[in-house]
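Renewal narrative, Specific Aim 1. Our central claim is that a sequence can be written position by position from structural information alone. The example that follows is taken directly from our test logs and has not been curated for this report. It begins with the structure tokens describing the chain, in the order in which they were read.
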């Protein structure tokens, strides 16, 4: 029984010297992060396909059970909108090949303008993807959440391809007006959609966005603790990513989420102790 947890990145200035040792060479940052969390969102690949040598470094710094949920480049999802992107996809798959089993899922995040009328393009794209990978899709158009027919169509397309629907739960962020600069920025950038908790596969993936106040973040994730505990009892192996607008405490909060689930499911394997931020001394 395994629950993987992680953050949106593995290096973040507010974590340095507080949660993670500082300074750290670039080739050691992911290794240190991986002592805290056993999954990470691969957001950087959205902006550019990484060099294969860079991905080889990621693999060296993590064990085979570590999970990367790697986002497809925006040239495929946003610019070409899943059409005519065969060369970009081949280059991307070749680059991430060194991750091996660590590539838990390839994440197809679609723009907010990708509407139910575009579902056919998604179906065709999924049919053309190679085997050997799991695929996960995130949609942001409100109709997929408000219209039962649109949601049902998307679920059928995803289920037919063995792909997961990734919810990005921002409901806690939008419960009340922002109270920090980071929250105000998040209000302008994050999708405002209802919470969705249905899993389509045995490897559900959740993205949860809380508030900069840790207590409000913890209070807001209580429904997810219950849902994830139920998934584990059903034999599923979920991955949950914890975000806050400033992400200053996201590393600690991801582990706190794991602890909260384990309180409901004592058989859940605990996370290992993290690398201390300060070097150990004899005195």
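The sequence written for that structure reads:
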């Amino acid at each position: 029984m395994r629950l993987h947890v992680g953050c949106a990145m593995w290096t973040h200035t507010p974590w340095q010297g507080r949660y993670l040792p500082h300074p750290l060479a670039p080739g050691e940052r992911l290794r240190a992060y991986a002592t805290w969390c056993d999954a990470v969102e691969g957001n950087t690949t959205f902006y550019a396909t990484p060099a294969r040598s860079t991905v080889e470094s990621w693999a060296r710094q993590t064990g085979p059970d570590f999970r990367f949920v790697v986002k497809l480049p925006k040239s495929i999802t946003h610019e070409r909108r899943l059409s005519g992107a065969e060369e970009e996809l081949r280059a991307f798959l070749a680059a991430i090949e060194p991750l091996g089993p660590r590539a838990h899922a390839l994440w197809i995040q679609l723009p907010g303008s990708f509407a139910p009328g575009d579902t056919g393009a998604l179906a065709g794209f999924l049919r053309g993807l190679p085997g050997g990978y799991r695929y996960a899709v995130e949609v942001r158009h409100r109709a997929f959440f408000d219209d039962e027919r649109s949601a049902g169509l998307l679920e059928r397309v995803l289920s037919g391809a063995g792909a997961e629907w990734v919810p990005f739960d921002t409901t806690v962020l939008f419960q009340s007006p922002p109270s920090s600069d980071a929250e105000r920025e998040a209000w302008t950038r994050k999708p405002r959609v209802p919470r969705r908790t249905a899993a389509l596969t045995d490897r559900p993936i959740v993205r949860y966005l809380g508030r900069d106040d840790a207590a409000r973040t913890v209070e807001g994730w209580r429904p997810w603790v219950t849902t994830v505990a139920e998934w584990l009892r059903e034999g599923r192996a979920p991955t949950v990513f914890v975000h806050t607008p400033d992400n200053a405490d996201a590393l600690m909060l991801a582990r706190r989420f794991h602890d909260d689930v384990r309180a409901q499911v004592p058989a859940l394997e605990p996370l290992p102790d993290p690398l201390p931020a300060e070097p150990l001394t004899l005195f």
